[in-house]
Amino acid sequence: MAVEVRVPSLLWKYTGGQKKLHYERATVGALLETIDADYPGFRDQLVEDGEMRRFVNIFRNDEDIRFLDRMDTALEDGDVLAILPALAGGAPDPDRRPRWAGRA
Amino acid sequence: MSNGPVPIPQALLDAMVAHAREANPDECCGVVLRFPDRALSLYRTTNAADAAQRPFRFDIPAGELLHLYRLMSEREADHYIVYHSHTMTEARPSPTDLRFARPLVGADPWPYWLLVSLAAEPPDVRVWRIVEAADDDPEAVNGVKPVEVGYEVAPLPPGSALLRLESSGDQRRPVVTERPLGD
After folding, report:
1. Which residues of A touch B63 (CB under 8 A)?
2. Domains of chain A by residue range
3. Which of A42, B7, B33, B114 would disulfide-bridge B154, Cβ 3.0–4.6 Å?
4. CA distance linking residue A67 with residue B57, whole number of Å
5. What is the CATH number of domain A3-88?
């Protein structure tokens, strides 16, 4: 038993097309460093200045690690780590809109 | 992914415009998945942006994303379309959209971006791809830019569905439920 990492399609180019990786248990932060040693560039897509990027979600089993211990979240044998890109966006910020487009 | 017009059934277009109107003055958001038998499922999702920001932001909550990505992996569905509305501006990906989309570019399958603008009446619907762009490209934001591909009205494939996702429980471990639209 090990930790299973489910790789989203946008990161397949870093993992040589592998959709699932298996690693020894560790914290999320340490695991991502280990993965990055095998697949350089992988970690930078997910982490900036030691914290998860805003546009990334990481789940341990069904739990968002933002509500656990973030990068310090411990992983046990049999855990599944799912990495999901955010889907977000929106209109131009109101202060960048033309004056006529301001909200009433 | 082709560069030609994207086939979209009228029922899905109508559902996306209706969602935009219902959510107004907030932005709406949702996803269309395409299954191996060609059936399409439209999922209205929750806009989890802060209430004060929802008129100009959308953010699909992580639990609903997990639900959708699980469907994609277990039922081999493609992520066909991500849609949202702009309530006062044109139906074109904004710099905000491009900044948020940047980490996704290169994903396969990579969804079409459909925007509904309520600045026009009837609402304007436009469909785009977001592609990598050279830094000196005047349209580039963070290395990507939108390219309009348009759409054509297509028949509704058998087995298609219009659904909404609802999240309950706490944020740490949300429970996501699928319900038919109209329930």
Report:
1. 64
2. 3-88
3. B7
4. 23
5. 3.10.20.30
